[in-house]
Amino acid sequence: MREYIKLPKTKPLSNSRRELRKLSDEHWKNHIFSHLLRFYKEADSDEIITLIEDAKRKKPSNIEVVIKKKIKKWLTNDLHFNMHDFIINREPSADGNVDGFYDLKFEHSQWKHKYFAFECKNLDKTETSIKEYVYNKAGDDGGVYRYVTCKYAAELDFGGMIGFVLEGNENDIISKIINKLHRTFDDNEIGKLAEKGIIENSIEGNPNTFDSIHLRQQRDYGKGQTFKLHHIIFDMCPK
Question: Is the pLDDT of residue 186 over 50?
Answer without folding.
Answer: yes
